[in-house]
Amino acid sequence: MTRPTPETHAAQPRFATDLVTFYHPEFWGLDSADAFREWAAKNPERFWERVLDALTEAGVTGIELTFAPGDIDSLLRTFGDAPSFRRELAARGLSVVSAFIAASEGLDWRQGSHLPAIVADAERRAAFLTEVGADILVAGLPMRATFGTRPPFFVDAAYMTRMADIAHVVGEAVAHHGVRLAFHTESNSTLWYERDIDLFMALTDPRYVWLCPDSCHIALGGGDPVAVARRHSQRIALAHWKDAVKPIDVQLTIDETVFARQQPYMTELGTGMVDFTEWAAEMSRTPGADTVLIELDEASDPVAALRAGMAVARNARI
């Protein structure tokens, strides 16, 4: 594996964003997340048209597909097939970078009987990514249990070995499509703390399992995202550039509401605690150096927020 040099990537990165950036109900003139999801499900064409227009206006050229409404099934209903979607993007100077398998959409990796369905789902997504010219599938490990739950759920060597075994099977399957499987460091998941990341990376084969570190989520767990990036630089296929206010300082109940309750700890790039100058330096040495994916998690004014984030990233890369 060739290790890129910082000079190779200092000039013009491809700026991208996860489509969750556009999920804030205020951006759509609506008053709740439920109202937005209901509207988008009924109006997929209008959803996609406005998102693509906003991406063009912001100057972002890459997208990461995510959970509904910015998911693969929604765009297929809207555009008909992958080649049609790719042509629509190309006409606007856009392209797909990656697709993210959200916990709400995926099958539970802790259930061994789910493995055939997990592989089939990953291969379906990988085949789609190949058709649209992308080569990164982002996944996550299962969430932790709420602290104090009995019987307790331990993220130990035995658990992580099982996760590594599944990751190998899935990673090998999508590799046949020319797609890399990269793991996201989600808050309150079993791939959150620095120790989790180091253990999982040590147990997995670098030919089949890659990393997608999220600077915000690592910081929310009390970790050092720059140190994580430095230790695992050769395995970073893509990174999420996001800022954090401070580490999460309470034990959150881990259920379907945990993602919303994490959001107050997140902030726009350059307004929090992440050292993006050091982060950028480490990112420039990774296989994913050519893409800067700015993640904002539901921005009320996504165009302005993306422009501000790109300015921060450009300054950090100088």
The chain-level structural class is alpha/beta
Number of strands: 10
Radius of gyration: 18 Å
Share in β-strands: 5-15%
Distance between the termini: 25 Å
| Tally of separate helices | 12
Sheet of most strands: 8 strands, parallel
Instruction: Please provide the ordered H/E string of secondary-structure elements.
Output: EHHEHHEHEHEHEHHEEHEHEH
Task: Return residue spans where pLDDT drops below 50 for at least 5 consecutive residues.
Answer: 1-10
Major β-sheet strand ordering: 6-5-4-3-2-1-10-7
The average pLDDT is: 94
List the topology elements:
Layout: E1 14-18, H1 33-42, H2 44-58, E2 62-65, H3 72-79, H4 82-91, E3 95-100, H5 115-132, E4 136-139, H6 157-175, E5 180-184, H7 194-203, E6 210-212, H8 215-220, H9 225-231, E7 240-241, E8 243-244, H10 258-262, E9 266-267, H11 276-283, E10 291-294, H12 302-317
Parallel strand pairs: 1-2, 1-10, 2-3, 3-4, 4-5, 5-6, 7-10
Antiparallel strand pairs: 8-9
Plain-language structure description:
The structure is a single chain. This protein is an alpha/beta fold and 318 residues long. The chain has twelve helices and ten strands. Strands 6-5-4-3-2-1-10-7 form an eight-stranded parallel beta sheet. A two-stranded antiparallel sheet has the order 8-9. α2 packs parallel to α12, α6 packs across α7 and α9 runs parallel beside α11. The two termini are 25 Å apart.
